[in-house]
Amino acid sequence: MKISDYTSRKRPGRPRSKRSHQAILTATREILVEFGVHGLSIEGVAEKAGVGKTTIYRHWKSKEDLIAEAFGSIAHEIEIPDTGNAINDLTTVLNGMIEVANDATQSPAAFKKILAGLMESPALLNVYKKQFIVPRRNALKQIIEKGIDRGQIRKDIDIDPLIDIVGGSYFYTVLMNDKPVTVDDWLERIKPIIMDGIAPNE
Amino acid sequence: MKISDYTSRKRPGRPRSKRSHQAILTATREILVEFGVHGLSIEGVAEKAGVGKTTIYRHWKSKEDLIAEAFGSIAHEIEIPDTGNAINDLTTVLNGMIEVANDATQSPAAFKKILAGLMESPALLNVYKKQFIVPRRNALKQIIEKGIDRGQIRKDIDIDPLIDIVGGSYFYTVLMNDKPVTVDDWLERIKPIIMDGIAPNE
Amino acid sequence: MKISDYTSRKRPGRPRSKRSHQAILTATREILVEFGVHGLSIEGVAEKAGVGKTTIYRHWKSKEDLIAEAFGSIAHEIEIPDTGNAINDLTTVLNGMIEVANDATQSPAAFKKILAGLMESPALLNVYKKQFIVPRRNALKQIIEKGIDRGQIRKDIDIDPLIDIVGGSYFYTVLMNDKPVTVDDWLERIKPIIMDGIAPNE
Amino acid sequence: MKISDYTSRKRPGRPRSKRSHQAILTATREILVEFGVHGLSIEGVAEKAGVGKTTIYRHWKSKEDLIAEAFGSIAHEIEIPDTGNAINDLTTVLNGMIEVANDATQSPAAFKKILAGLMESPALLNVYKKQFIVPRRNALKQIIEKGIDRGQIRKDIDIDPLIDIVGGSYFYTVLMNDKPVTVDDWLERIKPIIMDGIAPNE
DNA sequence: AACTAACCGAGACGGTACGTCTCGTCTTCGC
DNA sequence: GCGAAGACGAGACGTACCGTCTCGGTTAGTT
């Protein structure tokens, strides 16, 4: 049983409080957005959530686990678009990445701070990988593969490195720029270079 | 005057001890390599360097400042190669980036840890930018420009985004992979995609 | 509620540890005896007591408060003798003062050091007054008053100044002599002078 | 040569500055009066005197030595009165002790603070003994002896304990009272008790 | 209805590190 | 060589959090 599986009702005794669980997650997310990973302390979360520290450690086995779950609600799952046009679908997914950075946290600077904070430990890095990268990488991959099938993208393309390039440039742009990432900052600038690489050979 | 400008002999009183200054930097670098930014404490540095904490705070105004300077000696300046062949020169610089990651710190995992640690604060991020990115970006830029002049690289290329892509993918590869970056992991994989974008149109 | 009132079980949360509380007091007393007020540091107490510094600050709001309480267990309360003979009773109390100096701290030099240390601050001086002087002064006063009633001490005596003289000479003897105070050093020497002043006029 | 013997002009080089020496003593005395022994730091003295710390340590080998000398100018030497009336002479000397406490330091509270501070270390205690007690004890002793010769004081008196009682009660009164000592507080209160002990038996 | 197991909050626990302070000493320059 | 300025190693200060532990008191679902 996962430590945070508070819903499981096999075991005896008083069940975990959903209210507390939720309050902790909310407090965590708010602190994360306002102060970043760095400025988050368990004691701070406990106070903000009106909860004992023990309760937090009962639900999550570490600070990192808590942050992981809270980050999950920022970089939520995505749907994979399928309009029949691979280029459009790619653009949709990539735009979605920008939106996460700018919208999900209210303040765009917050996303940068959080992202940077996730580098603090291998565990948190894995959170970023699992919660953010993997779903998007999968989406891109599927779209590209479909695009290749449809002849919209040239078929000798090496998909994984391409996605790494896109993901890396996203990551880099988010972290290194002082301003929030915009479509023009990132997508429009990399497009010409990437496009040459994926445009179907005629 | 910078707080760490211990050499300036305008001011009266006992001059800052070069020996202590150096011992602190060395201790910092060693701790950084072994334990990462996260595992570095001022008290640890002081003890390892055989120095009082006050001396550290006298030379650097914060932990970040100290790390910045110590990082500088890991990601040292580079020379810009000029063999007449832009592609070769680019490869040299990019190989150099891999070497920094793998050699400068003895342990390749260390570089990943340090790099991640530098994301902890905007100040440290700037250190990475200034100490690592800017010199390499400048090198790449010069080489590309010369390559364009010589007709080795097509001239409608948008240089800055291209370099961002390369830098981002480097950064991403270093951080996201569990193993040290190798030429094959990174350079050989991105080459085909990048090359299509820069190869001269004939 | 006093900060050190760890016994009160009105408040929620884990109760203060009596074991730690006691260990701190013991360590404090031992350090006090060995090194004096001057040589006592909170960190030293914490280490000797096997306790975190925070625990000390949780139980006592300052170093002075801690010393005050620790001193209390050196200069403990006294019982007021009542044998019917005021002169004997006085002698008992005064001998008790000598015993405190010589016995309670194991080493007589220690009492001198501690007493001197208590002069360091008005707060500590008050501790001495409250913990040491006041109870003894009260005892002497009661005995003298009873002695006057019984006609053992002349009734026109001015009690307070007399006690001041006795207390002062005690204090002075403890502080100024290099050796521990003995009955002969102090009590026997002042007796003739005092006695003349208190012997009943016939 | 005493370390503070700045006047000696045997040795080569720049002579010690009387100006600095004096400034240090003055600053010390002023800080002593205002903040007590406790509140005096060498760094504070250096700054107030406009002098380097080294200079202080060149003139006095320790903080205690400096305080000793500065205290000397507060509890200055006394003259031994000899009016032919021992009781009058005693009163003069004792009044002088009160004056030292109240006048020499401007603020009477200061004397209490300084006196308490002198208990901090055996060295300082010796300063008090040597600078303050010994001269006054000698004066009292001489006067009493002359008084005995003249038949003004009874001759079976034990002089030393008597003086201890007087000195102790002075010391005690200064330290324990919150207000400055006055003639009435101290001298007038102890007189009746002491007098009975010294009045000549007729 | 009583029992019991796991929850809850509050807050204490031993620790580590922080950045600041002052100690008494050391080291340089310029008079 | 003295005097000033100020750096030096040392170590204590009181504070902030860490992750754990310990209370009295809930809150279900068994018996």
Second rung of CATH, namely the architecture of the largest domain in chain A: Orthogonal Bundle
Instruction: Spell out the CATH superfamily of the largest domain in chain A.
Output: Tetracycline Repressor, domain 2
What distance lies between the first and last C-alpha atoms of chain A, to the nearest angstrom? 55 Å
SSE pattern of chain A:
HHHHHHHHH
User: Greatest interface and its residue counts?
Assistant: C-D, 33 and 33 residues
Oligomer: homotetramer
Average pLDDT of chain A, to the nearest integer? Answer: 85
Main sheet summary of chain A = none
Q: β content of chain A, as a range?
A: under 5%
The portion of residues assigned to helices of chain A is 55-70%
CATH top level of the largest domain in chain A is Mainly Alpha
Rg value of chain A? 20 Å
Please tally the β strands of chain A and state the result: 0
The name of the CATH topology of the largest domain in chain A is Tetracycline Repressor, domain 2
